[in-house]
Amino acid sequence: MYNTLWSMLLLKPYSIDLKDCNGTQYDIQEAACCENKLHPGSNLFCCGKEPYNPGTATCCKVQHGKILTASITQGLSEKVSKCCDLKAYNPVNEICCQSTIISKPGPMAECCGKDVFDKDKQLCCGPADNKTILVRNSHHHECCGHSQYDTETQCCCSNEEKLEIQPKNSPCCVRNFTPVSAWTTVSKCPIYDMENKLCCGPNNDKKILTRKSRDHIFKLQPKCTEPNTHLCGSSCYNPKQNCCCESNHKPHSLDNSGQRKATATVYNPHTQVCCDGRVSQWKPWIDQCCGEMPYGSAQRGVLCCNKTLYKNRDDGEECSEMGIPYNPAKGTICCSQFHGSPGQHCCGTEIYWPRTEICCNGHRHLKSENIHCCGVKAYNIKDPQMKCCAGTLYNLTSLDKHGGDAQCCGSILQKPQDICCSSEDKEVLYSAKTGFKCCGHLYYNTTLWSCCAGGLRRIHEPGQDQRKMINGSRLLSVNNLNKIDLCKEMHIGTVESVSLQSIVFRSVLKVHGMEAKVKALPFPYILERDDRCSSPKLIAGKTYYFNKVNVFIDFNHDSVLQSLHLIISKCSSQVTTS
């Protein structure tokens, strides 16, 4: 199999993503080059010298001086992980304390030195080098050295470099109380801490900001004092006489004091023209801008491509899709590659023949019945042994998989011992564990969290009905339906609104793939549901697939039309794509 993959890499010279690896041309969609060594495979990236798939693993890096060390943690996707030195962990259920990964004792867990404590039930007390974990007596108890005190009736008093807990009315508590004089007020700002805060803004609109450093100060913006004038950069102008030319696309540069330079300019619209922040002399034939350059549509020999004005061009030239000028009567330009044959279609950097070939992300393949694209490859959608997972094609025969059982999780083919958690924008694969469930794309410990409509909540949160919170929820993929379920009656519709008991859809189509029939249903279409929490989070305005039981999304296609075409092509014996 390795030799087959290797030959595939070397036989595609027309890919739009070719790179060089130690003298060998390769496609970045089909291989990765890690420190001059080529590794074939889809969705691969480099972690130091080794390749890895971010969908199933995490790369952690640590810098020690000039030496960078990298390590791969398999079985945990980078989409949901964090690094604890060179080891990855799941921050939903775990925490990193001084380079050690520890299971969270509660949702509000924090580090206490090398240990972990539940902030809701415990306190971490003592100096930084000698911490002690205490059972918290109440929510208004705080630390005082290695002990805790009741902030409502006591204080933590510093007495001869020693901390003591005393009643609030004791002389020590009164003597150590921070007086109001340590704080200050400026103009219309309320009392604030000058060491850590800044009072910013005009007198009639003051705001307190967190001071980033002692070097940060408040600087008043220039103002225009003359009536009916406006500010343009650092200049004032009368809008009845002049205009302000300013670019919203340019990054603001800094002057010597670290302040933003004014990039706006005042100009006279009767004698000048403003194009993307640049002022030029106006001429009668100028009627539009090309980036910063003014020009007129009546001019000969000029062409605007991708905000760049090209001069001395031949009549009949156009802009290519890549923003390069060319004459379509003389040839075809594919990406930046020019071909002498005019009027052709492009596939990557090469031309192709749509009647006999199919183009898949810049790769040409011979066209035949029921052939569709899966990433850069082409396959027969009616072949039960081929499975397309978000642009990655799998041959189930070589992987000892049965067509009806194979499940996708993003671009990964799911193993029986794994579970796929999915939300609107992510599909993440996890190793299945007892006591864990999906909440959207997160995999959570049911002793720490509960889930409702794709959102995690702390266990025993005030006002929470635990009977409604025991089930996980995830958004199912229509791509994982077997042919029997995919090809029978299904609905496609756009969410209008969501309530506790039902979902209202609009623009609903009833699709029967086996019969190649599509029927529009009247508005509104109401889908009843028994348990809102066990349903995935649905967003108003988005389109979903659904039957009487579940709601699905198509992670493989960008439009409903593409999905419908695939369903009918795959299910109906009447449809062919020869």
Q: If you had to describe this structure to a student in words, what would you say it looks like?
A:
The chain is mainly β and 578 residues long. Among the domains are: 42 residues, no CATH class; 43 residues, no CATH class; 51 residues, no CATH class; 49 residues, no CATH class; 96 residues, no CATH class. It is 5% helix and 42% strand. Strands 53, 54, 55, 56, 57, 58 and 59 form a seven-stranded mixed β-sheet that branches. A two-stranded antiparallel ribbon has the order 1-2. Strands 3-4 form a two-stranded antiparallel ribbon. Strand 31 and strand 32 form a beta hairpin.
Proportion of β residues? 35-45%
Mean pLDDT: 83
Straight-line distance between termini = 29 Å
Computed CA radius of gyration, to the nearest angstrom: 32 Å
Number of strands: 59
Please state the structural category.
Answer: mainly beta
SS field, number of helical segments: 4
Helix content: under 10%
| Largest sheet entry | 7 strands, mixed
Q: Indicate the low-confidence ranges by residue numbers.
A: 1-15, 178-187, 462-469
Shape: extended
Highlighted features:
59 strands; mainly beta; 578 residues; 4 helices; seven-stranded mixed beta sheet; 5% helix
Write the layout of secondary structure elements.
Elements: H1 2-10, E1 18-21, E2 24-27, E3 31-34, E4 37-40, E5 45-47, E6 50-52, E7 57-64, E8 67-74, E9 82-84, E10 87-89, E11 94-97, E12 100-103, E13 109-112, E14 115-118, E15 122-125, E16 132-135, E17 141-144, E18 147-150, E19 154-159, E20 162-167, H2 171-175, E21 197-200, E22 207-210, E23 230-232, E24 235-237, E25 243-245, E26 265-267, E27 272-275, E28 278-281, E29 288-290, E30 293-295, E31 302-305, E32 308-311, E33 318-319, E34 325-326, E35 332-334, E36 337-339, E37 345-347, E38 350-352, E39 357-360, E40 363-366, E41 371-374, E42 377-380, E43 386-389, E44 392-395, E45 407-409, E46 412-414, E47 418-422, E48 427-431, E49 436-439, E50 442-445, E51 449-452, E52 455-458, E53 476-477, H3 483-487, E54 489-498, E55 502-512, E56 517-520, E57 525-528, E58 543-546, E59 551-553, H4 560-571
Parallel strand pairs: 53-59
Antiparallel strand pairs: 1-2, 3-4, 5-6, 7-8, 9-10, 11-12, 13-14, 15-16, 17-18, 19-20, 21-22, 23-24, 25-26, 27-28, 29-30, 31-32, 33-34, 35-36, 37-38, 39-40, 41-42, 43-44, 45-46, 47-48, 49-50, 51-52, 54-55, 54-58, 55-56, 55-57, 58-59
